[in-house]
Specification:
Elements: H1 2-27, H2 33-55, E1 57-62, E2 76-79, H3 85-93, E3 98-103, H4 112-116, E4 122-124, H5 129-145, E5 149-152, H6 170-178, E6 182-187, E7 203-209, H7 220-238, H8 240-250
Parallel strand pairs: 1-7, 2-5, 2-6, 3-4, 3-5
Antiparallel strand pairs: 6-7
Length: 251
């Protein structure tokens, strides 16, 4: 049954992405990128609504009161990365448009990638590390000044449930360079949507949004250590069984 439900939801994503992507690509000839972004968010809501109805996936969020107020208040979101779910979920939770930092190869994906190319995102060539970071800072400053928040997964890739990846300081370097506060976010998405897994399981995903951490005058490495400590501590609190299992497996 889980396989059938997952297949139906996958088809739901394929079918619904086409009209939304076409609307974004056609609308890009006369509409501004922020309005196009909110069209994309409506598709994400369709995907998550389908996940709730077809897969039995629910979401609980705590800490939304920690998000900065003000139309142009800047923020760099640093999010735990366990699956595709949080990439779909974050824009539906945030009051500001988000700009993802992602590898440029995603732009080649039919419809999904084509539509992303019309939005104000930061796509980079990972092979050109120095140039890539300079591009992140350059575009990040412009976007943050417009009230668009930048979202980065500091572990760089999806991490299995109950495990910790290597936290890279690119996000905190951007925050220090722009003076934007950092907002750490923990997400237990792998409980229901494991990384690289086609079959999803019913259950509840917990999202915890931390308090903004000032970046001005901070060392990026020290700031990332603080972010890492908070996120991993929250992950142990939100999903303790996963970490107990990982510890038993490693023993």
């Amino acid at each position: 049954m889980a396989l059938v439900r997952s297949a139906i939801h996958f088809l739901w994503m394929l079918v619904t992405v086409v009209p939304f992507a076409i609307a974004i690509m056609v609308g890009s000839f006369w509409r501004d990128k922020v309005s196009l972004y909110w069209i994309a968010v409506q598709w994400l809501r369709c995907v998550l609504g389908g996940a709730r109805v077809m897969l039995g996936i629910e979401v609980s969020v705590e800490g939304q009161e920690n998000l900065p107020l003000g139309e142009t208040s800047p923020a760099v979101l640093l999010v735990k990365h366990q699956s595709t779910l949080e990439t779909f979920l974050m824009p539906t939770l945030m009051p500001h448009p988000l700009a993802y930092v992602f590898k440029k190869e995603l732009l080649q994906l039919p419809f999904f990638g084509w539509a992303m190319g019309r939005l104000d995102m930061i796509h980079i060539d990972r092979k050109l590390r120095a140039q890539a970071f300079n591009k992140v800072v350059e575009q990040g400053k412009r976007l943050l000044a417009q009230g668009i928040w930048v979202i980065i997964f500091p572990e760089g890739t999806r991490i299995p449930r109950g495990q910790k990846g290597t936290y890279r300081h690119g996000g905190t370097r951007l925050a220090v360079a722009t003076g934007a506060p950092v907002i750490p976010i923990a997400v237990t998405s792998a409980k229901v949507w494991p990384r690289r897994a086609f079959i999803k399981r019913p259950g509840r995903v917990h999202v915890s949004i931390g308090k903004p951490i000032p970046s001005q005058g901070r060392d990026p490495d020290d700031l990332m250590l603080e972010v890492e400590k908070w996120i991993e501590s929250e992950m142990h609190r939100l999903d303790p069984e996963a970490y107990r299992q990982a510890e038993r497996a490693a023993a």
